[in-house]
Amino acid sequence: MKNSRRAFLKKTSVAAAGITVVPNIAVSGLGHRAPSDKLNVAGVGIGGKGHPNLVAMNSENIVALCDVDWKYAEKCFNEFPKAKRYRDWRKMFDEMGNSIDGVMVATADHTHALIAAHALTLGKHVYCQKPLTHSVYESRLLTRLAAKHKVATQMGNQGNSGDGVRQVCEWIWNGEIGEVTEVHAWTDRPIWPQGLERPAEKMTPPDTLDWDLFVGPAPMRPYHEIYTPWNWRGWWDFGTGAFGDMACHVLDPVYQSLKLGYPEKVNGSSTQMNTESAPQAETVEFIFPAREQVKNQSMPSVKVFWYDGGILPRRPELLPEGEDLMADGLGGCIFVGSKDTLVTGCGGFNPRLLSGRVPKETPYLRRIPGAVGYVDGPHEQDWIRACKESPENRTEGTSHFGYSGPFNEMVLLGVLAIRLQNLNKILKWDAENMRFTNISDSEELRIVTSDEFKVIDGHPHFDTKYARFNAVEAAGEYIKHTYRDGWDLPPMP
Ligand SMILES: NC(=O)c1ccc[n+]([C@@H]2O[C@H](COP(=O)([O-])OP(=O)(O)OC[C@H]3O[C@@H](n4cnc5c(N)ncnc54)[C@H](O)[C@@H]3O)[C@@H](O)[C@H]2O)c1
Questions:
Q1: Is residue 351 in contact with ligand 1, taking CB distance under 6 Å?
Q2: Mean pLDDT over residues 259-278, rounded?
Q3: Burial class (CB in 10 A: 0-12, 13-18, 19+), 400
Q4: What burial class does residue 219 get, using C-beta atoms within 10 Å of its C-beta: 0-12 exposed, 13-18 middle, 19+ buried?
Q5: Which of 140, 344, 345, 446 shows the smallest number of beta carbons within 10 Å?
Q6: 163 and 374 in contact (C-beta within 8 Å)?
Q7: Does residue 107 have its Cβ closer than 6 Å to ligand 1?
Q8: CB of residue 27 inside a 6 A radius of ligand 1
């Protein structure tokens, strides 16, 4: 049970029923004021995670709901019977733009950026699920649009509001483990199909699903039930595989406590990877340059290692025998410091030092009421609080796009390293210009398209076929996607 999707959704929504309602203060800066100073919130992508996200926001008016799959969305429609229903978020913005204050986005990864970017451009506050976007360029765009329009934003990595990540930051900044030069982070995902070839079988989409709207900006492909709901995660056009799915949770305490910024080098490796879907198990190594000292602690160059699909880091010798690195069912990380080693679960929960020493508690970072454990509710409510504060006096949610945009770029760079692994090199990243500096114009990327296996007369026969791409062009396309006709992002500010 611990690895099932149902258990994960349940685990992350237990607190939704008991959220704290923030005091009513003026809804600022929007030229529109909702009854009793409540926000008018619209939800896009409401059949899965969007549902508990909206329940966690039901201190406000949930005025509009949009989903491309009205059967899957039915439970959420029934939960908010007064909300107006849509299939196409563009129509929703056209018709209700003037009466919406904030937008919650929980669609498949490849459509987050379009919906969020247009909402930001309309001056709406945005709560957007993790990973924030599907491409590095989209992350950069959302970061800049959020700053330009001075709205409140939050990426939906709810662990980010938790006490654990705050404690990790305080311990590291107080010098409890010394200089950190190596971090190892992991998850056991995927718990959905990956490493698959595109299905050949053709299916007709059910009447309740608008397949064209689901595909959205990605290249059109025939419908198959294997893509939506939920299983889109493993398909490159729609999701980002296990790394993109979980790294925004697992690496959050690492990115935050070590103030990582942009990596300068990245290298990926995995089980067989094909053109269609993410591989079954992946490792990534990031190299970050030295950063400015934080409080008492210097921040030397650090290597961050990622493992998924069942691969775990080398077990630290001091880790007590029998201790399960996947005990929380999500993942965790090991910070190797010059004085001690810090181990945490996913999202920085349950931090402990391998020496057994317990640092004196000196909490000084802002705590979010109720954010103990991996729960929905406090993270959404902290965004709502920020929406109601004026831009000049706002305390941003800790996963506002100014933080989560660059963090998400790191995560997507890891996905890029996996997709470009066939180049057999440590990729050098020019973050400012969003390009790799050591891929030459003539380099070629060779990626498996199909891999049939047969036994003939007792002997194994593999028929492995490959596609070849110009590496600079392929990397450019992964970094900034070309969208299908009819889909556009607002310009980069
Ligand atoms: N923070 C967490 O703990 C957590 C947990 C699960 C999922 N997520 C994230 O939430 C997002 C959704 O994941 P999920 O598991 O709910 O997936 P899902 O497939 O179960 O649900 C996605 C919903 O969005 C709808 N949808 C897809 N494209 C749409 C579009 N263009 N317009 C309107 N509706 C659209 C689908 O029909 C479906 O109802 C993902 O980004 C995922 O990474 C976060």
A1: no
A2: 98
A3: buried
A4: exposed
A5: 446
A6: no
A7: yes
A8: no
C-alpha of residue 47 to centroid of ligand 1, in Å: 7
Q: pLDDT tier at 36 (50, 70, 90 boundaries)?
A: low
Which residues, other chains included, contact 34 with Cβ-Cβ below 8 Å and sequence gap of 6+? 27, 40, 60, 61, 101
Q: Is the dihedral of CA 272, 453, 194, 474 positive or negative?
A: positive
Token pair for residue 243?
């790394």
Question: Does 236 have pLDDT greater than 50?
Answer: yes
**207 three-state secondary structure:** coil
Which one, of 47, 185, 64, 172, lies nearest residue 107 by Cα?
47
Does ligand 1 come within 6 angstroms of the Cβ of 49?
A: yes
Smallest CA-to-CA distance from 69 within 52, 88, 83 is with 88
Query: How does pLDDT run across 342-354, given as a tens digit for each residue?
Result: 999 999 999 999 9
Taking the C-alpha atoms of residue 417 and residue 473, their distance in angstroms, rounded to an integer, is 15
In this structure, how many other beta carbons lie within 10 angstroms of the beta carbon of residue 311? 14
pLDDT in tens, 272-282: 999 999 999 99
pLDDT in tens, 196-208: 999 999 899 999 9
